[in-house]
Amino acid sequence: MSLLVKKVKNANWKASELSEAFDNANIPFQPVSYVNWPEYPYKPDVKFRIAHNGNTIFLNYQVEESDIKAVCNEDNGKVWEDSCVEFFVTFDGEPFYYNVECNCIGNVLIGAGAGRQDRKPIPAEYLNRIDRWSSLGNLPVQDKSGKWEVSLVIPKEVFMFDKLDSLAGLPAKGNFYKCGDKLKVPHFLSWNPIQSEHPDFHLPHYFGDLLFE
User: Residue 95: pLDDT above 90?
Assistant: First the structure.
């Protein structure tokens, strides 16, 4: 699959206003709907929107699911065990890529490397530059169900191993995910389909094409 990441000139949006800003700018939703592994058939309703202004990536996820949980209350923790959305991206081509993972209360985990086993965590000084907003607030939640959304405003400097002068015109590859490894019903959804024997998001071979306008 391929996706054009629209450029919004002069946008200086905050995470808290991103959903309305996307509406006003007519940024369309993309589904995260591939159930790649039959042993995990549960399919919550998941969609995302993405745009950029040359220096910053704007990302909004909207989710409806039967079990909403977030017990990880710090950055670079085990957010993938909670109700979690993810954005993996490579600017240099395979295999070096970044994994941007965020639970439903806005805690993030970001690593970089050429595979699952050699991830380098992005330091807190960079993570702290990410503006986040969640419809659930920022305190731990459990035993809820229904809708939630989370928005991230990610400066290009967070991708610290790439010297990105501008995102404009940049060809990239990536994938978007929804998971919850320790939820009552674990699930692993993707935007671009994955063909592997077991659930694994760390497979850049299955990234789709992203073109930053």
Answer: no
